[in-house]
Each structure stands twice: as C-alpha cells, then as structure tokens.
Amino acid sequence: KMRLSHSISRKGLTMVQRTSLYLLFGLLLGNLGCMKKQLREPKPETCNAYGEFRLNESQAKGLSQAKKQQMQQEAQVAFQQALSLDPDNTEAILGLAKSQLTGGSTDGAIKILNAAVQKSPENPAFWLLMGRCYGRKKEWSQAVQSLKEANRYAPQDRTVLRELGYTLARAGHIDEGLGYLEQMMPKDQANYNIARMLEHIGRADLSPE
Exposed/middle/buried for 73, CB within 10 Å: 0-12, 13-18, 19+? Predict the structure, then answer.
C-alpha cells in the first residue's frame, strides 16, 4: 500500500484527475483562442469608439498641425476597419465623413455621404450631415435640399428642424425658415433667433418684423 501510494504521489495524479485537468486545460486554451481571435478582429463599435475618440482629440487646442493630421488619419483608419467588418455601419460611415470634414476635405465628406444615401436614402443622419457639408461650402440650395430630405425621414427631430430653419433663412427664405423653427419653439423666440443670426452674418436687413 505504501508503494502504491508513493507511486501515485510520484506520478502526481490519478488517471481520472489527469483526464479532468486535460479537459480543463482544453477549455482554457479554447477560451484563450477565442479571446485572441476577438483581439485580432475587434467589433465595429469598438473601432467606431476609438475613431470618435481620436477625432475629438484632434480638435484640442495647442496641437501642432502634424499631430492633428496624425489623429485624424488614425480616426479614418478606425472607421475604415469598422466598415470592413460591417459595410453598412451607420456610425462608421458618419465617422469617416466627419473625419474628412474635420480634415478640411468637405468634398470628400460629401462623396462618402452621396454613396451612403444611394444605399440608404431613408437614413436622416446622412442627409443632416450632408446639409451641414453644403452649408460649410455656402451652397445653400443644396444644403436646404439635403436638410429637407432629413426632415422628410425625421419630421419631429429638433436638430433637423433647427438646422433647416436657419439654413433656409441663410438662403433668403425667411418665412419658410421661421415655419420650421416654430415647430420647436414659440414664434417670438423663432423671430428673435433668426434676427440675431442674420445680424451676425451682416444681413440684418432681412430680419423678420
């Protein structure tokens, strides 16, 4: 009995114990394999979160132009990786367009958004950002058209109503712009806001009475 006990302790474990440990190690190795695969292939939302983080960081004050460009490029890579995993991912498409816009390529952003609305014309977020892009270029008729498409698919969205109202006013369509703003605020406040905006751009002569 002592020899048998000594033999077991020298060999370490019984057959049942060794089998159990092999199974346990197998499960652990399998889980590690899955974890490594997840690290190699991150989820689209992880890529988007990193892209947004780098894009926001690039707007910090005091950064050199080279550092800003580096951060914006890293953001673009992150959004592109998200799209490689999910080609129709809305946040990645918007992020990629925003990174173009932030980097000074308004036309690049519009190109991305034009492709997006061809595939998903019912997505108001694409039209809203496109309207902002055309607004940055001061192409007001295109901006209004894009924002009206956004309003078509999201008629109660306050951001869309506000952007459309002010953009119409910038385009010279004061009364129509007021009509959209009055859907989200009292008439007096809408008149005041439009008047302040027009005064700011040097067109106080167009202010509503």
Answer: middle
Per-residue pLDDT band at 119 (split at 50, 70, 90): very high
Rounded to 10 degrees, what is the CA torsion of 15, 16, 21, 24?
140
Cβ neighbours around 149 below 10 Å, total: 21
- DSSP conformation class of 202: T
Residues 84-97 as b/e (b if ≥16 CB within 10 A, e otherwise) read: eebeebebbbbbbb
Res 8 pLDDT > 80: no
- Contact indicator for 38, 79 with CB cutoff of 8 Å: no
Closest residue by Cα to residue 141 from 172, 111, 162, 118: 172
Tokens representing 177 are 């712009």
Do 131 and 143 meet the contact criterion of CB atoms below 8 Å apart? yes
In angstroms, what CA-CA distances link 112 with 92, 99, 117, 118, 149? Answer: 11, 11, 9, 10, 17
Q: Which of 198, 196, 197, 156 is nearest to 180 (CA)?
A: 156
Q: Which of 149, 178, 146, 186 is nearest to 162 (CA)?
A: 178
- C-beta neighbour count of 25 within 10 angstroms: 10
